[in-house]
Amino acid sequence: MKKSALLAAVLALVFAGAQAQQKLPDPVNDAGAKPAAPGESGEPAVEKSGDAAAPAEPVARQLSSHEAADALSEDELKQILEILRGNYVNPDALNEVSLARAGMQGLLDRLGAGARIFSAAKKADDRVGLFRSELLEGAVGYLRLGALTAENIAALDAALEGFAAKPPTALVLDLRATPHSTDFELAAECSRRFSPKGRVLFSIKKPKANDEEILTSRENPRWRGLLTLLVDGNTAGAGEVIAAVLHTHLRAYVIGQQTKGEAAQFEEVPLAGGRVLRVAVGEVTLPDATPVFPGGLTPDLTVNVPQEKTDEVLQLAMNGAGVAPLVFDKARARMNEAALVAGTNPELDEVQEIQKRRAVGEAPAKPVRDEVLQRALDYIASVRVYESRENAAGGVR
Questions:
Q1: What pLDDT score was predicted for residue 11?
Q2: pTM of this structure
Q3: Residue 250, class by beta-carbon neighbours within 10 Å (0-12 exposed, 13-18 middle, 19+ buried)?
Q4: Within this chain, do residues 331 and 354 fall inside the same structural domain, yes or no?
């Protein structure tokens, strides 16, 4: 490849990255960004002296790589490349291949989840995705969607029908155990169980094909009431679309961690060396333009829990007695009539057993808790208290 052609290719990559940066958030430089102080943005600071404003000297500040790539003109980019090639201490770092790698690295960093390279074809998420339904204390319905399949959608329908006889006061929809999927039709089917009839749920736009698919809610919802959603860092694709749709249309309260940011249709393209480029070819968008790709859905209440702990509680709930033991404390032994007749003291026996175990270095294990679900129940309890006070105030009037 000629140097001029390679230089043009590198510049094209840089400009493509700059254009992508205008659309995609920079998690490093945008998170928690503070307004630039006078002079820090490169603009002259203004000093007030009486009624006249005198321009001050600009303060020198090192630009980040993102800032520089976005701010430099095409002529400046060419100028910098020529200066580096002629003066940099390590010429090998600026050969044709190195420049091409640098351009590709910057572009992939900017596109994030939109374009990733894998060592081989990406395998499907093999996490166990079984459906689970449970009624928790306080009449709160708990639904774990699991894998997005027709069987689990049918199980969801059966659970909602079972709740209809004596509806719970609130519902928790857990999307943390939902493996990644791009079956957005099933995502729409799940959303239709909760969304009002006739609403546009979301659309899938494919700029390359100049095509847009619009998915709507075609039936009356099977649940009306307080809805809380649980998500984590592995909630991706169709799962995070469900969360975003219900958050938008029902104001469902979302608790957990930022979702993965893969609400898109992907295409995998084999590369010459055996690696695979996975590129987003269709983007999911919501009617109110709430961004989900590539930044993911931000929860209303963030509960930072290590992913391994989340996986542990999800596995325990599926293999054990459900989620209730993970959110409610075990009832302590109490003195009762049967104990009095038998001449025993359950409360004392429990304390003595704990003391014996501690004496031999066997401290009672701290119970595993599902902190995210606990926060959801706390939120539901708070809403109930607020509503009861509002109702009481309305009655007084």
A1: 47
A2: 0.71
A3: buried
A4: yes
